[in-house]
Amino acid sequence: MENLTKQILDWEIHLLVLISFGLQLFLFFTGGLRRHGSNRVLRLSIWIGYLGADMVAVYALGYLSRHDGATHGSFFWAPFLIIHLGGQDTITAFAMEDNNLWLRHLLNLVVQVALSIYVFWKSIDKHSSELLISGILLFVAGSVKYGERIWSLKSGSFESLKSSAGNHYKRRLPEAIHANGCYSDAPWTSLQSMIDVFHIFSARPGERYMRQQGAMQPKKLLKVLEIQLGMMYDDLYTKAHVLRTKSGIILRGISQICLVVAFILFLTTDRQNYRRANIVITFSLFAGSFFLEACAAFIFMMSPWTLAWLEARKHEKLARFSWFLFTIGWPEKRPLWSNVVGQCNLFGWLEGQDISRSCNQLVRNMITQLVTLVGVKKDKVFSMRMVMFGTEYIKADKVTVS
């Protein structure tokens, strides 16, 4: 038993780094699935992964700063953990409330960067200059990635939505527009009315939007609405808004260049004095980072914004490639949303009865009855119930959509 405990302690930082990277992979490939479905198990898994990713990375950085023995070779993983804290392009926030916590993430960036500098400082005399320079470049890439996440959170906060008045849409809206009436027209139509969609989400009047959409054919209107909701989801919960800006593209280029140069320097470093397991894990982290960056580039290329930008500037080959990716990520025949609508059974609540008898409903009713017995008013119970359990989801038929 003692040997097992010792082995776990010896491999603790290795496991932490691998778990942190595994969570990043999970979040990248599942972060966008919420747009297409409302499965409670999936949402719970993403929520656990979203919270756990930051916790594991922060704990691993703390471990590296406390254990001198772990910093030989493994100190190089500190900037990778900063990259992991920067999150993935497909999910920066799990809920709207997360966007309002961007100042907390800014403080966390300062603290974790200081912690990483401390880890580097303890190892500065133990490693070659090539390895240290490679680590510094990774550190820059991680800081940029975390900065992108904070920028995205701030842009998606409700205060930013109210104050911006959709200016980022006005500045980047392509001038050209199709008029062929087929599916290739849908991205352009969606983009042209995104300013009004933004106004609706920021609690501004959208009468002009309703007049414009009312003239469309129902089938095309539904597809346009799906694309618009998808783009609004990307702006609120992903890094899409940041990557549409010139500054965001420059920062992404800097982080990618730093990552490539750091890998080249790592290849030229004499690694004979380092544990084989450390080298294998480091190569895995590099390979995983390149893989995620490549996948993120494909997602960027399939964006309606990228497609419209390329077509407006007559980059025909790139536009065709972007359209090909767009038809994969935003297919015409597959629904681009969950096809369910969240609602509260207000009449059932007022009458004190629920139509559904699922386990979730039974637990909800038990808690409602308990808090009512202790004297909590009914309106307070209703608010608490909505916060704790959210809304019910029903299948959206044609009547509901209309």
Automatic annotation (TrEMBL):
Q: Which residues cross the membrane?
A: 13-32, 44-64, 76-95, 102-121, 249-267, 279-310
**Keywords linked to the UniProt accession:** Membrane, Transmembrane, Transmembrane helix
Stretches assigned to the DUF4220 domain: 47-347
Mind telling me what this protein is named?
DUF4220 domain-containing protein
Q: Which organism is it from?
A: Digitaria exilis
